[in-house]
Structures are given as C-alpha cells and as structure tokens.
Amino acid sequence: MSNAARFDAAKTLDFVAVGRLCIDLNANEINRPMEETVTFTKYVGGSPANICIGMSRLGLKTAFIGKVANDQMGRFITGYLNKEGIDASGVTVDQSGAVTGLAFTEIKSPTDCSILMYRDNVADLLLEAGEVREELIAATKLLLISGTALAQSPSREAVFQALDYAKKHGAVIAFDLDYRPYTWTSDEETAVYYNLAAEKCDIIIGTREEFDMMERLGNNPGRDDHITAAKWFDHSADIVIIKHGKDGSIAYTKDGASHRARSFPAKVVKTFGAGDSYAAGFLYGLMQGWEISASMEFGSAAACIVISSHSCSDAMPKAPQVHEYIERCLAGEITAASN
Amino acid sequence: MSNAARFDAAKTLDFVAVGRLCIDLNANEINRPMEETVTFTKYVGGSPANICIGMSRLGLKTAFIGKVANDQMGRFITGYLNKEGIDASGVTVDQSGAVTGLAFTEIKSPTDCSILMYRDNVADLLLEAGEVREELIAATKLLLISGTALAQSPSREAVFQALDYAKKHGAVIAFDLDYRPYTWTSDEETAVYYNLAAEKCDIIIGTREEFDMMERLGNNPGRDDHITAAKWFDHSADIVIIKHGKDGSIAYTKDGASHRARSFPAKVVKTFGAGDSYAAGFLYGLMQGWEISASMEFGSAAACIVISSHSCSDAMPKAPQVHEYIERCLAGEITAASN
Amino acid sequence: MSNAARFDAAKTLDFVAVGRLCIDLNANEINRPMEETVTFTKYVGGSPANICIGMSRLGLKTAFIGKVANDQMGRFITGYLNKEGIDASGVTVDQSGAVTGLAFTEIKSPTDCSILMYRDNVADLLLEAGEVREELIAATKLLLISGTALAQSPSREAVFQALDYAKKHGAVIAFDLDYRPYTWTSDEETAVYYNLAAEKCDIIIGTREEFDMMERLGNNPGRDDHITAAKWFDHSADIVIIKHGKDGSIAYTKDGASHRARSFPAKVVKTFGAGDSYAAGFLYGLMQGWEISASMEFGSAAACIVISSHSCSDAMPKAPQVHEYIERCLAGEITAASN
Amino acid sequence: MSNAARFDAAKTLDFVAVGRLCIDLNANEINRPMEETVTFTKYVGGSPANICIGMSRLGLKTAFIGKVANDQMGRFITGYLNKEGIDASGVTVDQSGAVTGLAFTEIKSPTDCSILMYRDNVADLLLEAGEVREELIAATKLLLISGTALAQSPSREAVFQALDYAKKHGAVIAFDLDYRPYTWTSDEETAVYYNLAAEKCDIIIGTREEFDMMERLGNNPGRDDHITAAKWFDHSADIVIIKHGKDGSIAYTKDGASHRARSFPAKVVKTFGAGDSYAAGFLYGLMQGWEISASMEFGSAAACIVISSHSCSDAMPKAPQVHEYIERCLAGEITAASN
C-alpha cells in the first residue's frame, strides 16, 4: 500500500463513525444576520454524521454508533441514515427525555458564518459505554471518533470504550478533533481528554488551533508542526494532518515525511462542512490505497463542492462528482473569480 | 362598570404581562408528521407574549417583564416587541449563556396538532425577583401572570415578587393557568405553586383539566365548576373562567352568577393560539367595561381568527377585525362547513 | 382563654412539628477552636426536633413529620424520638442515598459559639408533599413549621402542603423563623417563601434580623416592631414575637397590645438551643391557657436551663424543673455572677 | 537494584501523593452498632493521606497534592500534615464552600467493620488540573495516585495531569486502586478511567476484586492473576500486586516472576487502614532497594501494627517499630491467639 495506513481487507464494513448526530437548521435567507431570517431548512448534521454520509455517498460500506432523541427530530435522523444506506443498528434511542442537538446557521457573507447551538440535554452526549456495539467495531476497517463526543459523560466513556474495541479488533482509528468550546467546562479538562484519546489513534486530523489546545499540557511554544506531529508518532499515530486554513493542510507521516496537495477554487456559499467533506474525501482516498497527497487532493475537491452548496450533509458528493470537479478545475472551468 | 373587575383609570399603562418569551418554529408543510417537514417559519411565541401582542394589537398600552437570551433569537424577540409598540424596558438580557425556548409545531391535521419543545436552560425561566421592575407594575391597570413562569426558580420567585408589587399598587391581576407538564418535577409541586399564586389573583382563566390539577390538594371529586370557582372567591378572585373545550367556557363571578357566550365557526388551520387570543379578547372587553358575556364573545371571535391562520403571535387581530368577524358570522358569511 | 391563641380541645394530639431532623456533634473539649478539639458527642438536633422534644418533655402529646437517612444516623434519630415518647409514624426513611444533616459545634467561649454544618444532600430536605400525613395534622391542636424546611424543594412544598392541611383542619399554626443562610440561594428567594408561609400562620416567632430579612419586599426602613407585627395581623397572625437578643423579646397581639416578660440569670455554657427551648416553653404556656407574659417567662427559664448544659435536645427540661428554676431565680439562688 | 522499580536518586523528594484528604470519626465505643455509639474521635484520613503519613513516619521526604475545605476541618488536616513533616505546599484551600469528607467508622467486631461516608460536595474532589504543582512532581522519586480521586471531575483531570507531569519528569508512578463504589456513577465509567490511569503506572496495587472491576472491558473470565498482570506489563507496569485478603498478596514482575511473602499474626481491633499501611511499608521497602518479598513482608508487618490500633493515620509506625514487630513475631512473642 502506498500510504501509512493499513486496513484489514477481511473486514466486512469499511467505515464506522461514533458520536454526534444532530439537526442543522440552515437559514434560507442568506447574507444577512439571523435576526432578519424568517425561514429555515432542516438537515441532518454533526461532524461525524456528515463524514459518515460522505463516506457512504463515496460508495463505502458504513455504519454509525450514536444516540438520538425519542422524538420527530430523532426519527428524521435515523430515517435519513437509512435512506443513505448507512447501517443505523448502532444508533440507540434515548428514553430519558433528551432532545436533539440543533445548529441554526447564520450566513452573513460567504466568509462570515456563525452557528447558534442548542446543546443542553442533547441525546448524542448520552450514549453510554454499554451501548457501543462491539460487533460493529469488530467488523470495520476504519473507526472515526470526533472530539465533540468527548465533551461530557457518559458519551466520553463511550468513546474510550469504542477505542478499546478498535484496539482489540485491529481497526484503524481516525480522530477528527472537531473542537467546539461549548459543552466543555475548562481548557484543562479539554486537553486531558483530547490527549488521552489521541494517544490511541492512528490518524489525527485537526487545525493548528486545535493542536495548540491539546499542547497546553506540553512544550511547543513555537507551535512547530513537526514537534506537534512527532509527539503522536511516539504513541499510536501514523498520519497527522494539521490544517492551516487558507494556507492549506500538511500531512505528516511516521517516516518523517510531510505531504502537501493542491487546492482548488470554489464558488463559496458558506464555510460550514468544509472540514467534514475534506475528512471524508481524504479517508476515502487512503482506503483506496492512494498516495497521501492524492488523498488530500480528493478531500480538498470534495470540500469545494460542499461549500458551494446550501447544506452540509445533503451536499456530500459521490466519487465521480469529485473526480469531475478536479478535472474541471484543472481545465480552468472553475475559478474562484466566478464566485 | 358592568363587570366584576375594577381597573384604576389613573394608571398610565393598561396591561403588563410577565413570563415566557420564546420562538415558535412553525412547519411550513402542514398536514403531515414533523419527520416529513422540511422548512420552518420563525415567530415570537409564549403564551403571555402572545396575549401581550394581542392586547397591543387591540389598541392598549402594554409592557412586558421577562428575560431573553443574549443571542440572535433573543434580539429577534425584543425587536418584535418594539415593532408591536410594546414597552420592552422590563425585558432583561441573560448573561449566563441560556438559550431561547423553542416550540416546533407539528400540524398533522387541524385537530391533531402537537409541539416539540426545547425548554432546557431557557432564558425566560431565569428572570429573577430583583429584575422585576416595580415601576411598570405600579403603572399598570392590569397584570397578567402565566403558569409556565412558576415552573422553576428563579422565575417562580419573580412571579411572586410581581404579585406582591401588584397587590401593593392596586393592579388587577389576571392568571392564565397555561399548565405545561414539562419543566415541572411533580404534581404536588405544581399544585402547591399554582394555588399559592391563584390565591392572590382577581381573574383566573383555565381549562377544567388545569383546575383539576390545582384541586388535587382539596376536595372536589365531582369536578364541580361551582365548587372550583367558590374556593377562589374565598381568596382574592372576582372572576373565574373555566374552559370546557368544544363545550364552551363559563365565567363565574363572586356574586354567584355564571355567564356563557356564543361561539363562532372558523376555518381551522390549527388549534395553537386559541387560548391566548381568547384571553386577550376577553381581558380587552373587560377593560372596555363591557358585560362579561360580551367580553367572552369578543375573546371567542379573536380566537377564531388566530386558529384560521398559520401563526399565533403574528395573527393576533386588531379590534375592527374582531368586530367584523363577529358581524360576518352573524350574517352567516363564515361557517365551519366552508373549512 | 387568656391569650390570643385558640386550641381545639377535641384534638387528640397537642403538637406536631414538621421539618429538620439532624445530628449535633458537640465538641467535648470546650473553650477552644474546633481545630483543637479531638472528641465529639452525638445528639439529635434540628430546631423543630429540639422544640418537639422539649414539648414532649413538658408532658404534651407530640408527633413529628420529617425524613431521615437510611443509615445508622437516621435510625439513631428515630430511636431517640421513640424513646422520648414522640409519635414518629410521620417520619419517612429516604431511599435515595441521602445523608443525615450534621452540625459540629464549636464553643470558643460561652459567647463565641459557631457551627460547622453538613447540609449537602440531606434527607430532611427531601420530605415530599405526598409524604406529609394529613391524619397527624388533622389530629393536632398546634402545628409548628420551621424556616429551614422552606430552603429547598421538595421539602419546601411539603411545608406548604402541611400548612394547607392545618388550615383545612383548624390547627393553630406556629412559625419558628429559624433562618439559616446556607442552603438558600438568594435573599429574594428567601423573602418570597418566608412571606408566603408567614401569611398563613397564627403565631410567628423570630429575631429582629429575621423579620428584617422578610421585609426586604416591603416598607419598614426604621425596622419598627409595630409595623412588622401589624403586617402579619392583616393576614392570619394573632401573636408575633420579635426577639431582640439581650434586650429581651416582645410579643405583639392582634388587639394592639405588646407584652414583655422578665428574664433570668444563667450559668451559660453555650448559646445553642436557647431559641428552641424558649419556643417550647412559650408554646407550652400558651397551650396551658396562661397569660402571654407568663408563657414568655416560662420560655425564658427553659432557655436558661438549656444554655447551662452541654447539649440542646438532651437538656430540654421537664415542667417541674422550669418552675423550680424560676423559683430559685426569684429566691436569688441563681445569678449570672456565679457563672 | 534488586527490585523492578528504578528511582532517580538525584530527586530531592522521595514521595508525593495526590488525592483524598478527609476526616475519620472513629467511634470510641466499639463492638456495637453505630446507632449505639455516643462519642467519636477525630483523625486525618483518606487512603493517600494515610500512605503519605506512613511514608513520612518511615523517614522519607514527602509532600502532598490535594485540596481541603476552608473550615476548621480543613485547617486541622493541613496542621496535621505539617506536624508530621509533610510538605503541604501543594494542598490548596477550596473557596467554593465545599466541605471536608467524613468517614464515621463502625466496629461491630474486629471482622465486622463498616464506614458511613459523607462525600457530597467534598473539597478533595475539587482539585483542579491547574492546581497540580508541577515542581513537586518534578522533584519526586515516586508519585502515588489513588483511585478515589478519579471518581469525579475536576479531580479526575488533576490526576491525569499529575500522571502527565510524572511521565515528563521521570518519576516512578504507583497506583493504589482504592476503589470505593460511592461517587462513581456506573461500572463502565469506573473501568474506563481506572484503565486509562493504570496504563501509565509503574506499580499497581489492588485487590482481586478491584482488578476484576477493571477487566470488565477485557477478557479474563477465569480471573487469572497472570493474565491480569500481563495486560499491564504491555503498558507501563513493572510490578503488579494482587491482594487476596486472608490468602495473602502476590507480586508479579515484568520478568514473569511472582513473589509471595510471609504474613504475621496480629491482635486485630479493626480492619481499617490495613491496605494503606501495607502500601506504605511495601513502597518504603522498594525505595530502600530491598527485594520485593522483603518489601512485602515489611508492608505486612506495618499493616499488623495499624489494625491492632484504634486509628489509621495516627497509628502509622516508624521503621524501628516495624522491624521490632517482625522480630517479635519471629520470636513467637505475638500470636493471633493472644487477641
């Protein structure tokens, strides 16, 4: 295989994600503050949910481990996963009266986007360790965890339980840091659990700021990417991707190499969903056995497609779309100037 | 005056409501379950908010005492109150990170409507006794309290503080029972605080079921309206309205009389908001010095207008609309059959 | 009867108290800070418990309504009540893992005493409205409530339930304000519930500072005892006792009169328990039909006996002891100088 | 060195413990249920506190990292540590109104002992990661953590922070499992954090039952000690001690060897404190460079001395006492029969 990740071809599932399932309510009236928006459209959301939908659209066999509210929103989410061909047998239904997390999006301009979150008493953070289905993790080549699920008990313990199963059964583990300050109670708490989880992961993907948050425990005052990556190679990691926003992403591998890839122009509607579609595209590439830089390129193109659209989950592309996007960019048919 | 309520003509405000301010998200696609709805329209909601908007539309001088979240939803609410001419100087802004309460409505059919509530960590229940502006209550002829605000501390204490100010300054007090089981922890707790508040009120409006809930402390196994009303006349009440759904409402007065009024046909879209528009219309009638039955009739017609519309707050009628509706009904121009 | 309180002679119980049952751990080594004390002696404590024990010692038929922890401390309390002849059938046992409240006493000097409280997750504050046995209140001449039980739900609702039963069955209601700042969350909350309860009581006993706390809602900047008392005569009260520490207590009655009584010398060990024994002695006197000033005098002598002793509950005197104490004081046999 | 642990001789402190500091209230009247005990004697308690006191008595340079309440109990604890020569500069004082944990002991018979715990809102569980003084851990040869401190946030994160510092600075880490069911919310949560901590420790000491609790995540249905120990040698451990109560303890080392030691007779008063004094004695032996079995023997003798006494902390022996106890046992001067 031409990249650092080793997937067990004998496994029957390609991809299992664990963590947040929620609802995005995207303002239909864009380029204005939410005080002035009147109508909203409902989508399935949550970073691991988006990535899982993305992987399924790309043609992989996928499953989800999570928890939904026992209400119309929860049933909408489960119905959508089923419709997308995602095995939702690991999605349990809360019986305690929890609600579905909500994210109201506000798009003031393509570059000025924000989210109003409803995260009190949400079902996804109530997933318990005992509800994590070992057989799903035993069957998968790749497990994805997401930082948000570490924010509170019992979801936090469920993630560590999932990591334990993945280690036991030899699944490759990817960690999408996905740090969101709300629901965490302190920086110390955040750093402690991010580090405990990251020590067990094979692939770690995050922004420079997310890695900074984790390093408050350690020593890297110069915020040097090599030092950051090297720490994780001393634990379980094979690949560490550090995202620098407009300056592009760099992938570091245990062999000491670093990898960059081309970026593509896009007619940006909003920035939401860029990271999730990038992660789906990149991990898909790795699982095809592509070079790391080719995988990164595929992720970038997938991200361009999503940020050119109104939704996140619903806009996740199929593989031919991504290939076509790359070709059209290379042919000069898509330019940012046409935005 | 021809009804039992005595309003102090020297006061500069007609009406002050205290309690819940929230957001209604009404499904645009009706006559289906919420799992299948895709878009929602945003309105100001909450029973006392709706009543206050109704009173303002009817031409009265109004103010609101409550608390909103420090976010786009909160600012939308305050902006709407201002636009409607309601004095919002008594609406404080939460600084603790609370959210705005949400009510997603589901209209499966005109008679099968339900609400999915978001009531965790909501700003309206964080109104504190010290934030209740005495000068607003000192200035008003009529104070309205609503049962939902009694559900939790500190909002519960704020309501008792408001009642204390109203007693001190001679405002007539109306209590819209508005009992919603969520947020209350037990039937005993509910009954205790509803009774403590009702003992101090001049006008009490509720359904038979709401009065049943309050009487679990007492003795009225036959659910006799006269016994129910008589209890409150031993305390502060002058008027007790008991609503029997399709069988209409009955108003009892301290003099031992009971009053009924005509009901009107309507092309029903949904049942939400009927009680709020009824309360606004009835209290408006009382404040005009109308007979109780005439006030009830006006309330019924106002309710018909609201339930024929998609929203609650936004559909609150002006006085001429209500008079016209009554006239058209009497002329046979509006019939339920035309629904 | 020669005092303002009217007790129903047909009732089979003299006295029922509702509220706090806890454990006092009194330092055996006195006149030093608790950092230097080594051993503690265990007693039943809690203001209403002490008063009830006092009433039973004085020869009355008594019962208690409260809740104890399901542990050795809880069983010690119930055993002690039984031993003292108090009907403990209204004392329920918590099943939620709550603990028994503790009060470690520190006696640095006879006039410098303090208490270290353990009040987290205590059983006594978990008494529920549904656990208040109506038949005990129906059977009693006099019900005592205590402010501490108002500090939290569900105990708060249990007190209002008890008041409702007492009103229904014609029991005289005494309110020992017993305000302790811990467990209350704000001054506003405190004042609201103290006032709601006091409005329903026949006899109110408290310190000037406790009445000040209740009057933050009202208008008495000069802290005038007559204004304070008059407010309650507008509600249910017949007798209001305001305690001024060393300056003695004054009883106000609905007829506009005020009453003072002699005080007695004592060899003070500590000040704890003075208020509880005073209340027991005073209420006992009232129930004997004595003049108010004679009742107050009896309360004062009972208090002298308790503060001359190491414990509170265990030192509650029998009636002959109190009479003897008064006689010995009048005969000059007891003087403070002999302390 | 003749045992598996490698201590850095250049460090200026021998031993630092992190975790629980509390108060034991030992019934003075023994051989009866607590319902019948009347007086209690106050001691410093808490497993890591006892071990630290033991290490200091044995002549080592020690320090403690923890948190105490801002009250007389907290000051008593800090004063006692100072008196024992323990560096308490790492003991912070809570400012949030937390209390000191209490343990009332009940000794029905030498073999029937129980504890009544007060663990609500205790200061020791409020130690924060940011309050763990890195310089103390940097300076110590040996760090002890205790399972109780993992039971709740923020103390849980403080322990992981301490482990991170110990790894960074090369301190040997000992983990006294000290599992107490109260304060933990579920078995899954317990197992997750015990495992995450144990993975980072060099010496792990616990009962067979404690290791069973940790293995619910794994596969050891036969409860085989070798399998248990082997798991930890795959992580950081060099020594794993599994205690089998009356059947004695077995130490496993990374080289595949197992070690047993003689046990000694004792005139048992109560069983409390046996584990803490054993741990102190054993760790002391290791730090002297003794063979593992000699260290275990020393621990056993230290335990015998403590269980023959009324207290835990106060009875911790000095080294000559332990040596003398062993000699007297070997000489037949102490026998269990003399109990």
What does this structure look like?
The structure is a homotetramer of 339-residue chains. Chain A has 339 residues and is of the alpha/beta class. Chain A has a single domain, classed as Ribokinase (UDP-N-acetylmuramoyl-L-alanine:D-glutamate ligase, 3-Layer(aba) Sandwich), CATH 3.40.1190.20. Helices cover 33% and strands 23% of the residues of chain A. Chain A has 10 helices and 13 strands. Chain A has helices at 47-57, 72-83, 134-138, 155-169, 187-198, 208-214, 225-233, 274-287, 292-307, 319-330; strands spanning 13-18, 22-27, 39-45, 62-68, 87-93, 102-109, 112-118, 140-146, 172-176, 203-207, 239-243, 249-253, 258-259. In chain A, the strands form 2 sheets. The first copy, chain A, has a 9-stranded mixed beta sheet, sandwiched between helices. Chain A has a 4-stranded mixed beta sheet with strand order 3-2-6-7. In chain A, a hairpin with a 5-residue loop joins strand 11 and strand 12. In chain A, helix 9 (292-307) crosses helix 10 (319-330). The N and C termini of chain A lie far apart (39 Å). Chains in contact: A-B, A-D, B-C, C-D. Chain A binds chain B through residues 25, 28, 33-35, 37-42, 71-73, 75-76, 79, 99, 102, 104, 106, 116, 118, 120-121, and chain B through 25, 28, 33-35, 37-42, 71-73, 75-76, 79, 99, 102, 104, 106, 116, 118, 120-121. Chains A, B, C, D: It comes from Paenibacillus glycanilyticus.
